[in-house]
Write a structure and sequence with these properties.
CATH class of the largest domain: Alpha Beta
Largest sheet: 5 strands, antiparallel
CATH topology of the largest domain: 2-enoyl-CoA Hydratase, Chain A, domain 1
Radius of gyration: 23 Å
Distance between the termini: 32 Å
Number of domains: 2
CATH superfamily of the largest domain: 2-enoyl-CoA Hydratase, Chain A, domain 1
Shape: globular
Strand content: 15-25%
C-alpha cells in the first residue's frame, strides 16, 4: 500500500540535535558512532532538565528522520491504528478539519449537518487539545486525525475563540461525515462527486454512486463536477483506479523509485465507463499528492478541465515499514510523474481557469464548473484546452 497524502501520518516531533564537541568544525559529520552513546550519557548525567529515556531515543530518531524529507517520520503504534483506520475510511469523523495559521491550529468551517456544525463550532477558533492531548506539537493533518473514532463514540475538543476563555466541546462520531465520497445532483442535470480522501475502495464506491447519479438525472444529465478541494491525497493506487473510470486509453501516472531503479507505469485498462460527457475538476491550494495525480491524469489525457487555484505540489509517495514494537516507519519511497512525465513536487498544477463570479455564500468554483458544462460547445470554440468528448 503506497500513500501519497499530506497530513495522513503521525506528527513530526521537534528534532533533538546532538551537541558538537568544540574541536569539531561546524557542519563536519561525526566520524565516530560511539559519540552518540557519549552524548546520551552526558545528557543523562549533567543536563539540568532530564528528559526520560524514551523521549531521548524518540528525539534521536526524529532528528535522524528530519534529515530525509518532511514526510518521512515515525508513527507510534497508537497513532498508526488511528491513521490506518481513517485512511481505510472505516472510522467516523465529526465533520471538522484543523488548519495551521500563524503558528497555531485553528478550525476550518465545519461541514453542514455535521456534529461539529451542530455544536456551534465556527471557523478560526484555536484548537488546544483533543481528549486532553495537547496539540501544540502536532501539525494540522495528524491533529485532524485525532478527531476520528469508531461510530457512536465521542471526542472532546478544547477550543478557544478570540477574547473568550477555553471551552470543551463533546462531539459524537457519525459514520456519514467520514465517508470519503459525497455525491448529489446540482440542478437537475449536473452530477457532483466530492472526493475527501483517496481511501481504500474509493473507485468501487464512486462507480456505484455515479450509476445512481446517472439514474436520477436520466436523459437530462449533462456532465460531472469532481471536487478535490481540501483533498490531502491518500492511496496512489486508488487515484489511478478512479482515473481509470474516466480515461479510456493512455498512461494515468508513473511511480519511480530512487535512481529510477524501479518504475511502475499505471495505464488505463480500456474499461472506462464514465466517458462521452464533460468533466470539470475543482482544485485549490490544499489539493495534494494523490489528488493532484488524479487531476493531472484527467487533464493531461484531455478528459477534464481544471478550475480553481494552484495545487499544493506534493509529488512523492510514502510506504510503511512495520517495526517490532508496533510502531511504523513512514518513509518516502518514490515520486510520481504525470502522464506527460512531469513531477508536481514543489510545482503543483495550475488550473485551466480560476473561479469566476459568486458572492457571499455562493460557491464560485462550483458556479464556474456548472457554467462550463452547460456551455461546453461554446467554451470549446474559445479555449484550446477543452477536452474532446470521447
Amino acid at each position: 500500500m503506497l500513500l501519497a497524502g499530506v497530513g495522513l501520518g503521525a506528527a513530526l516531533m521537534s528534532a533533538v540535535r546532538p551537541a558538537r564537541a568544540s574541536r569539531e568544525p561546524l557542519g563536519t559529520p561525526c566520524p565516530d558512532p560511539a559519540a552518540f552513546a557519549e552524548v546520551y550519557r552526558t545528557v543523562q548525567n549533567l543536563a539540568l532538565h532530564q528528559p526520560g529515556e524514551e523521549a531521548l531515543y524518540r528525539g534521536a530518531i526524529d532528528g535522524m528522520l528530519a534529515t530525509v524529507d518532511p514526510y518521512t517520520r515515525l508513527i507510534s503504534a497508537a497513532d498508526w491504528r488511528q491513521t490506518n483506520a481513517a485512511t481505510r475510511g472505516d472510522e467516523a469523523g465529526v465533520g471538522l478539519d484543523l488548519l495551521e495559521e500563524d503558528g497555531r491550529l485553528v478550525t476550518d468551517r465545519p461541514e453542514a449537518g455535521s456534529p461539529a456544525a451542530a455544536a456551534g463550532i465556527e471557523a478560526g477558533e484555536t484548537a488546544l487539545a483533543v481528549d486532553g492531548r495537547p496539540l501544540r506539537c502536532l501539525g494540522a493533518g495528524p491533529a485532524s486525525l485525532l478527531l476520528f473514532g469508531a461510530p457512536g463514540t465521542s471526542t472532546t475538543l478544547t477550543l478557544a475563540a478570540l477574547g473568550a476563555p477555553a471551552r470543551e466541546v463533546v462531539l459524537q462520531h457519525r459514520a456519514s461525515p467520514a465517508s470519503p465520497l459525497v455525491t448529489r445532483l446540482y440542478g437537475d442535470e449536473i452530477g457532483y462527486l466530492g472526493v475527501r480522501v483517496f481511501a481504500d475502495g474509493v473507485q468501487s464506491r464512486a462507480r456505484r454512486m455515479l450509476r445512481e447519479i446517472h439514474a436520477r438525472a436520466g436523459r437530462a444529465f449533462r456532465g460531472l463536477v469532481i471536487d478535490l478541494r481540501h483533498d490531502p491525497g491518500g492511496l496512489i493506487e486508488q487515484a489511478a483506479a478512479l482515473a481509470d473510470l474516466f480515461v479510456r486509453h493512455g498512461t494515468l501516472l508513473t511511480v519511480m523509485e530512487r535512481n529510477g531503479r524501479h518504475t511502475e507505469v499505471m495505464k488505463a485498462s480500456g474499461r472506462a465507463t464514465e466517458t462521452g460527457y464533460p468533466v470539470v475538476v475543482l482544485v485549490d491550494e490544499r489539493t495534494a499528492s494523490a489528488a493532484e495525480a488524479f487531476a493531472a491524469a484527467l487533464r493531461e489525457n484531455r478528459r477534464a478541465l481544471l478550475v480553481g487555484t494552484r495545487t499544493l505540489g506534493k509529488g512523492t509517495v510514502q510506504d510503511f515499514v512495520p517495526l517490532t514494537d508496533g510502531s511504523v516507519l513512514e518513509i518516502t519511497k518514490a515520486r510520481f510523474l504525470t502522464p506527460r512525465g512531469r513531477s508536481l513536487d514543489g510545482a503543483g498544477l495550475m488550473p485551466d481557469l480560476p473561479p469566476q463570479g459568486g458572492s457571499g455564500s455562493a460557491d464560485a468554483g462550483l458556479l464556474t464548473a456548472a457554467y462550463l458544462i452547460r456551455h461546453w460547445s461554446e467554451v470549446a470554440s474559445r479555449l484550446d484546452s477543452v477536452p474532446a468528448l470521447r
